[in-house]
Amino acid sequence: MPWKLYLCGMSLDKEPTVTDALEAIRALREELASVKDELSSCKGEVSRLNRNNTHLVVENKSLKAEVTRLKAEIEKLGGSKVEKDSTNSSVPPTQQSIAGQAALRTRSLREPSGRPSGGQKGHPGHELARTGNPAKTEEHRVKICPHCGAVIPDDAELVCTMPTQVIDIAGILVEPEVTEHRRYTAVCPHCHRKAHAKLPSGSSKKTSYGPKLQALVIYLSVVQSVTFDRIAETMRDVFCVKSFSEGTVKNILERNAKKALPVYTALLEYIAGEDAAGMDETGVYINKLLCWFWCLQCEKYCYVFADRSRGIKALEEHGILPYLKRLILYTDRHSTYFTLEVSGHQVCLAHLLRNLQYLCDINKEQKWAGSVQEVLRDAIHTWNESKCGVPGTEVRKSFENRMDRLLDEDVGHYGKEFQTLQNGIILCKEYLFTFLDHEGVPHHNNSSEGTIRILKVKTKVSGGFRTQAGADQYACFHSILETAKRNGASKFGTLYQTSCIFPLGNLLQVLTSCTFPIGNLVAHPPVEHFSALRGAPCGVHGGHFCLARCSMWGTWRAFLPCAVLHVGYMERFSGRRGAPCGVYGGHFRPARCSHRGYASTFPGGALPEWSQAEGAPSCDVTHYPYFCLLLLSLLCLNGVRLCCGDGIHY
C-alpha cells in the first residue's frame, strides 16, 4: 500500500520540489505574523480594560459613599425616601411628622452670610423710653445706715440720686401704667458714709417692666406654651405695650428664672422628706438634638430638669442621687431606675396592663396574658377596698404566689412577644405589689406622666427648645408652678408673687402652705438676699420683720419674727444654714431656730452658744424690748396666731 505525505494541504504522492517547500514556509511565516499582530492587539485591549476597571472601582467606591450619606440624611429627615415637605413643595407643615417638623424648623432656603446672628456691630441701640408724665410717683427714703446700723434722722438732707420708672399693664386696650420710683441718698451722722435707699423693684435700670406684665409673659410662655413672637404680639396689640420684642420675652424669662432658682433647688429637699416619689422621662429636641426631660414628683412637690442623657449620668450631673436614698420610687420598667440606691421600687401596673392587653389582642386563644391581668386587677381592687391603711404583708405574699405560678408557665410557643414580656416581668416581680404594704405608694405612675405631658404640647406648638438655657428655665418654672398647683395655689398668682417686692418669701409661703402672712408685708422694704441652700429671706431694713426659718428634713416649721420697730439692721446670712448676723450699733441680731432647739433672748444678756452642727454665733442684747420678741417667737413656734392693730395676723 503506497504512503502519502501532505504538506500545507498539498499531496506529496508526487515527488515534492524545493519551490513547494519554500511556499509552505512563507505561508507559515505569514500566519505567524498575523497571530503576533492579533496577540499584540489583544494585549493593548487588556491594558485598556484594566485601566477602565480601576477607574470604575474608584467611581463605585465614591458612589457607595454618596449613597451611604444620602441614606443617613434621609433617615435623619424621618423617612426611608425623600418626601415632599414644606421646604421643597407646597405641603403644609402640619402634615409632616413631629420629628420632621423639629428637623426642618431651623432649615432655611437663605444662604448663610457668614456674619454672627443678632444685632451687628455699630448698629444703633434701643432702650425703653422714659415718660415725662408718670401716673404715680413713689419716694423711697433711707432710714437705717447699711454700714453702721445707725438711724438716719427724719430731718437729714436727702438727695434724689436714681429716679426709675416701672411700666406695668393696666388692662385690655388700656395704655400701660407708669410708676416713677425716686431713690434718695443721705449721709449717716454716725459714720459719715452715704446711705442709699432701696428700690422695691430691685432693678437699677432707668426703665423696667412691672410684676404683672412679667408674670403674664411667663404664664403665656410656660403654662400656655405660646411662642415668643406671639407673646410679643399679644403684649403690643392687647395690652398696648409699645416696642415689645421677642428679646424682651427672653430677658424676662431669664431674669425671673434666676430669682426663682433658690426655690427650684429647695424642692429637692422637700421631695427627699417624703416616703415615696415617682419618676419619668420624655424626649424633647433641644437645639436639634434629642434630649430628655426628667421628672421627680410626689403628692405636693415636683422637680423637672433637662439633660442629654437618658441614663444614670443625667441624675449624677444634676445631683439627684443623694435625694433618692430614703424614697420608694414608683416608675415604669426603664432599666436606669433599678440601678439607683433607693429604699424600694414599685412598677407601674398601668403600663403592664396595657402591654398584656396587646398580647391578648394578637392571640385571643391563649389565657396566660388574661390571667396575669386578673392578678394585677385583683391586687388593685384589694388596695382600693382597704379602709384601714394598706392591706398588709400577708396579702402581698398571696398575690406574689399567684404571680409566681403564672411566671413559671412556658409561654414561648405563643410567640416572641409573650416570652419577652414574661422575662421582663420576672426581672421586676419583687416590685409588683409594693403598694400593698407601704403607705403612700400608688400602683401607677400616672402623676409623673401627667407632669411632663405639657412638654409634648409645647413641642407641637413650638417644636422644642433652641438652647439648653431655655430648657433649664422652662424646667425651673414648670417645677414651681406644678408644685403651686398641687398645693391649691394659682399658677398666675405664684408668678405674680415671683416678680413682687418679696418674691421668694411669697413663693415659699405658697409652696409650703405656711400660715405666716408674708404676703401682707409687701408694703415694707424689700428682701436683700436669699440663703443659697435653705432659702430663708433676710436683709430687711427699717425695723420690719426679718423671717428666720426652722427646718427639719427641709420642712418649714415656723417663721421667727425679729428686729421689730427700728431695733436694728441685719446685714447678711451665714452661708449654709442661713443664720442672720452682722448687726452693728448695739442693736438686736436675730437668730435662727434649729431643729435641736431655739435660741433664747434675755434683756441685757447674750444669746447662748448654738450647737456645733448649726454653727450660729452669739451676740449681745442691750435693749429690754427684746424680751417681748422671745415671747412672740415662742408663740409663733408653737402655732399660736397673734393679731396686731393693723389686722395682720402673726
Describe this structure in words.
- The chain has 650 residues and is an alpha/beta fold.
- Among the domains are: 1-79; 349-436; 514-637, no CATH class.
- It has helices at 18-76, 98-104, 211-223, 228-237, 246-272, 312-317, 349-362, 368-385, 393-407, 416-427, 446-462, 468-486, 491-498, 503-512, 626-637; strands at residues 6-7, 10-11, 136-140, 159-168, 177-187, 194-196, 207-209, 276-286, 289-297, 302-307, 328-331, 344-347, 529-530, 537-538, 546-552, 555-562, 572-573, 580-581.
- β15 (546-552) and β16 (555-562) form a beta hairpin.
- α5 packs across α12 (468-486).
Mean pLDDT reading: 75
The percentage helix is 25-40%
N- and C-termini, Cα separation: 151 Å
Count of DSSP-assigned helices: 15
* Biggest sheet character: 5 strands, mixed
> What percent of residues are in strands?
5-15%
Low-confidence stretches: 1-9, 501-507, 512-631, 634-650
Given helix and strand content, the structural type is alpha/beta
Summarize the structure.
With about 650 residues, the protein is α/β, with parallel strands linked by helices. It has helices spanning about 20-75, 100-105, 210-225, 230-235, 245-270, 310-315, 350-360, 370-385, 395-405, 415-425, 445-460, 470-485, 490-500, 505-510, 625-635, and strands spanning about 5, 10, 135-140, 160-170, 175-185, 195, 205-210, 275-285, 290-295, 300-305, 330, 345, 530, 535-540, 545-550, 555-560, 570-575, 580.
